[in-house]
Amino acid sequence: MTGLLSVEEREGAVVFKVRVQPRASRNELAGTYGDALRLRIAAPPVEGQANEACCAFLARLLGVPRGKVAVVGGHTSRTKLVRVEGVTAQQVLSLLGRA
Questions:
Q1: Is 90 exposed, middle or buried, given 0-12, 13-18 or 19+ CB atoms closer than 10 A?
Q2: Where would I find the beta strands (DSSP E) of 1-99?
Q3: Separation of CA 42 from chain center
Q4: CATH code matching the domain that covers 7-98, chosen among 3.40.190.10, 3.40.50.720, 3.30.1200.10, 3.40.50.11270
Q5: What is the spatial distance between Cα 75 and Cα 77, in angstroms, rounded to a whole number?
Q6: Which residue of 20, 61, 86, 97 has the fewest CB atoms within a 10 Å radius of its CB?
Q7: Is-contact 14 7, C-beta < 8 A?
């Protein structure tokens, strides 16, 4: 599925949806899934490991410290709402060019 990524700027941060596929062979950006950024994450969905790996991977992609990335919704779902401080919506949208 492909779609238009929905990214909102709120209070000095951006908020967007991420669709996570846990237990992948490696961490990678995989395009979009509906209005969400699609990620393949190697970590299993156990005890928050996939959420942590997702945040660390996004922090590396966006060039921000790990502490600036947080899952704010969908903690136990494959579709998560992520908040990233210190970046613009345009920087997040530019990730699609790398997918």
A1: exposed
A2: 7-10, 13-21, 28-33, 36-40, 69-73, 79-85
A3: 14
A4: 3.30.1200.10
A5: 6
A6: 97
A7: yes
Coil vs helix vs strand at 36: strand
Task: Residue count of the chain, please give it.
Answer: 99
Alpha helices in the chain (DSSP H): 49-62, 89-93
Res. 3: pLDDT tops 60:
no
Using DSSP's 3-state secondary structure scheme, residue 78 falls into coil
**pLDDT digits over 15-38, tens only?**
999 999 999 999 999 999 999 999
